[in-house]
Amino acid sequence: xxxxxxxxxCLQSVAAVYDVVLITSEEPTWEVPYLxxxxxxxxxxxxxxxxxxxxMLAERYDLAGVFTWTEWYLVPVARLARQLGLPTTAPxxxxxxxxxxxxxxxxxxxxxxxxxxxxxxxLAEAKAAAQRIGYPLVLKPAAHAASIGVIRADTPDQxxxxxxxxDQAARLGRESTSVLVEEYLDGPEVSVECVSYRGExxxxxxxxxxxxxPPFFEELAHCVDAADPLLDVVTPVARAAVRVLGITDGVSxxxxxxxxxxxxxxxxxxxxxxDMIGHLVSLATGIDLPRAAADIACDRAPDLTPTRSSAxxxxxxxxxxxxxxxxxxxxxxxxxxxxxxxxxxxxxDDLLLPADGGDMFTARIGYLITTGPAADVxxxxxxxxxxxLGIHIAPRTAGGSTRDRAV
Length: 407
Known about the structure:
By secondary structure, the chain is an alpha+beta fold. It contains twelve helices and 18 strands. It has helices at residues 2-15, 47-60, 74-83, 91-98, 100-110, 123-133, 156-170, 230-245, 277-285, 289-297, 360-363, 375-387; strands spanning 21-24, 37-40, 117-120, 137-141, 151-153, 179-183, 189-197, 200-211, 219-225, 250-259, 262-269, 311-317, 323-330, 338-343, 350-351, 366-372, 389-395, 405-406. It has an eight-stranded antiparallel sheet with strand order 11-10-7-8-9-12-16-14, with helices on both faces. Helix 1 (2-15) packs across helix 10 (289-297), helix 3 runs antiparallel to helix 4 (91-98) and helix 6 crosses helix 7. The longest helix has 16 residues, at 230-245.
């Protein structure tokens, strides 16, 4: 049901304007009120299965467009749109987004500021790349998502374990099983939310991020301010990245770091950002990214006129240690600036962090969203809301027992 917690706002927005027919891997539950029809396939990333489902729906309805906000389906959905004669960015461009090695090569060829990067398959190749690039380094799967398998290595001694961590995640990929060894971009991380229509790209918002301490790069918080002065700084680089990848139509989530105040590309995701970022954009600016994506998929010009000028932030909630969730509650009255709070775990659930063999998304306890007139206000509100959370973890100990710990 976590799809509902993070993507229901997208489906609700699109269904308010369009009849929606859905191709999905599971029987719909919460989606049902928003759907005209549905086809269930075992794996929508399987091109043959997706194309068969698409043809089935095309026989029943006069389809106007097709799009996805799921990372794994970007290339198959672009191919499906082309097969059905519907508007789409070229599948080759979506492949370039999905494969970070291809993206890096295109950025380098066209002079878009990025990071030095070498694609490797073995530890020996990783060591050779590290000697060329220099430490600190970042290792990551060439085609994964959500910071899965991304890790920093500061010394040659750390490289072996870091390569094993990234390689394990890379081997789960369908589109590439390579690992990238890259220059570490030292600076604050942001994402740039872009909308492209018929080859013209508009930057609608910049999202400032808080990420975890090395060696992992898990996202802890996002903040969107309609009046963020970084918009002028990041817009030229974001638009150049979208252009050189060949993205002509749709919503893009462009990640970069500011090194000495200058933007350097991390990656381009050819879909609406996760972690409720599209909802933050709507709260801060009034611009509806899911509606824009649907309009573009139907070859209609999206309305990107801001109707608000405020700020919104999301704080992602994680345990301070692996263990069992012993207590979870929001205590006291809920203030009007706390737009929503969501818990995706329950008392008794085991939470396992990456250092203990787990991952951050499944260990995530939930999130809270705050709103206000400016970034500093919503971030202060988030801190206040955190103080009202009662979360206790019974952590693991060497002997396997647990004891309560607050986070």
